[in-house]
Amino acid sequence: QVQFVESGGGLVQPGGSLRLSCAASGSIFNMYTRGWYRQAPGKQRELVAAITSGGITNYADSVKGRFTISRDNAKNAVYLQMNSLKPEDTAVYYCNRNPPIAAYWGQGTQVTVSS
Fold first, then answer.
1. I want to staple 94 with a disulfide (CB 3.0 to 4.6 A). Which of 36, 67, 104, 108 is the partner?
2. Per residue in 31-70, pLDDT tens?
């Protein structure tokens, strides 16, 4: 059974940093583009960052220059380094393929940015 498991979220003050991790079962995911998504209360889930199997990245305008996505194919893992966090970054963060597969959504990890 395919599963993504996100971790690393928490409560952080504005301007702080967090590093999210996403582990995936099955090395088949190494050939696909992977993405980090987030969903804030009352809002649609949105793509935050994506990385191809070859390491090409792209970011939502709202996080450019602050977030960095990376992957370790040997560990079937994807990471999201988040710096200079803002209250508007508060959301549940998920990882998935890009474009996403509905059946692969995990529980996500909560990120709360507040003083």
1. 108
2. 789 999 999 999 999 999 999 999 999 999 999 999 999 9
Query: What Å distances lie between residue 62 and 32, 54, 65, CA to CA?
Result: 24, 24, 9
> Do β-strands 4-7 and 18-24 pair in parallel, antiparallel, or remain unpaired?
antiparallel
CA angle 21, 3, 20 (to 5 degrees): 10
Spatial separation of the C-alpha atoms in residues 81 and 22, rounded to whole Å:
12
Q: Which two tokens stand for residue 62?
A: 């709202």
Tokens, residue 88? 């508007």
- Using an 8 Å Cβ cutoff, are 43 and 37 in contact? no
Sheet containing 77-82: give its strands across: 4-7, 18-24, 77-82, 67-72
At 23 the three-state DSSP class reads: strand
- Residue 4 φ then ψ, to 5°: -105, 140
Please classify residue 33 by burial: count the beta carbons closer than 10 Å to its beta carbon, then call 0-12 exposed, 13-18 middle and 19+ buried. Answer: middle
Render pLDDT for 76-92 as a digit per residue (tens, 0 to 9).
899 999 999 999 999 99
